């Protein structure tokens, strides 16, 4: 992976292929490693780009207080560096929060949005409190507690042992400081619900049928609130739908990118 400097810290990224840009934004508490397969499958037709947000994967935690907007700014700074004016943004869960923050900040740089297993609303007061409790536990006990607490919600009951191990490994590579900062950033994220009807770029909403964190009913609601959206459910997939049903995920993504929005 290559790196660039964003606000005094190295942010790691990778790009493959050429053509219209497609940027992959990772979930919490994983890293851009979750998009390895999609980087390969989209780079035949597109310039596929993925990055580790500060504190995840190979990127060190940020110096400044973290916000979802900071991840959005880091992503846009990477695109500036790569001289990419506009791109399609594929965000899963926390990555979807970042995609919506990028759209809020720079709608002209968003050619399309692919929102996977995510939501547009902010946290309830109870959810915020829960995040703070988890952040403190991560700071005292390490990121391992996230794997123990989150795995049953991130994956469906039918997930393979291989995927389970892959997710555990990605979580173990996150820094405790970065994960705690991200929990506090998610707690304070903006609510984009009211903006949804005004988003004018093409959008695709993807959701695993077994996703218990952002269930299909919620994702359908998200798709309905968007002006120009397609909605696809991925049979049998849990929250990390691209890892659990990669073929169906890639098929829906490529169909949308090739036929719908970004002819290569
Ligand atoms: C994620 O998968 O990124 C998280 O479930 C997002 C969240 O905790 O809201």
Give the gist of this structure:
The protein is α/β, with parallel strands linked by helices.
Give a description of the structure.
Helix 4 runs antiparallel to helix 7 (176-187) and helix 5 packs antiparallel against helix 6 (161-172). The chain has helices spanning 36-42, 68-81, 94-105, 125-141, 144-154, 161-172, 176-187, 216-225, 241-244, 246-261, and strands at residues 2-6, 9-16, 21-25, 47-51, 87-92, 110-116, 203-208, 229-234. Helix content is 44%, strand content 18%. The model has no long low-confidence stretch (mean pLDDT 96). The protein is of the alpha/beta class. It is globular. It has an 8-stranded mixed beta sheet with strand order 1-2-4-3-5-6-7-8, sandwiched between helices. The two termini are 25 Å apart. It is built from 10 helices and 8 strands. The structure holds D-malate. D-malate (MLT) is lined by residues 27-28, 93-94, 186, 213, 239.
Key structural traits:
eight-stranded mixed sheet; binds D-malate; alpha/beta; 264 residues
Annotate the secondary structure layout.
Layout: E1 2-6, E2 9-16, E3 21-25, H1 36-42, E4 47-51, H2 68-81, E5 87-92, H3 94-105, E6 110-116, H4 125-141, H5 144-154, H6 161-172, H7 176-187, E7 203-208, H8 216-225, E8 229-234, H9 241-244, H10 246-261
Parallel strand pairs: 3-4, 3-5, 5-6, 6-7, 7-8
Antiparallel strand pairs: 1-2, 2-4
The protein binds D-malate.
D-malate (MLT) binds near residues 28, 93, 213 and 239.
């Amino acid at each position: 992976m290559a790196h660039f400097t964003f606000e005094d810290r190295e942010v790691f990224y990778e790009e493959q292929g050429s053509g219209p840009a497609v940027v992959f934004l990772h979930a919490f508490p994983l890293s851009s490693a979750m998009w390895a397969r999609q980087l390969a499958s989209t780079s035949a037709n597109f310039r596929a780009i993925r990055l580790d947000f500060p504190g995840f994967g190979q990127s060190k935690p940020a110096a400044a207080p973290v916000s979802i907007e900071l991840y959005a700014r880091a992503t846009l700074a990477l695109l500036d560096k790569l001289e990419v004016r506009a791109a399609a943004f594929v965000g899963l869960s926390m990555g979807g929060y970042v995609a919506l923050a990028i759209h809020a900040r720079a709608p002209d740089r968003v050619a399309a949005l692919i929102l996977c297993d995510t939501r547009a609303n902010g946290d309830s007061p109870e959810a915020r409190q829960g995040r703070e409790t988890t952040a403190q536990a991560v700071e005292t006990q390490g990121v391992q507690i996230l794997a123990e607490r989150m795995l049953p919600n991130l994956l469906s009951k039918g997930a393979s042992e291989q995927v389970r191990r892959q997710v555990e490994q990605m979580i173990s590579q996150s820094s405790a400081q970065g994960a705690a900062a991200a929990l506090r950033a998610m707690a304070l994220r903006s609510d984009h619900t009211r903006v949804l009807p005004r988003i004018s770029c093409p959008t695709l909403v993807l959701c695993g049928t077994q996703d218990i964190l952002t269930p299909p009913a919620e994702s359908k609601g998200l798709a309905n609130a968007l002006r120009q959206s397609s909605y696809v459910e991925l049979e049998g997939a849990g929250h990390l739908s691209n890892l659990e049903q990669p073929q169906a995920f890639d098929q829906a993504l490529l169909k949308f990118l090739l036929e719908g929005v970004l002819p290569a």
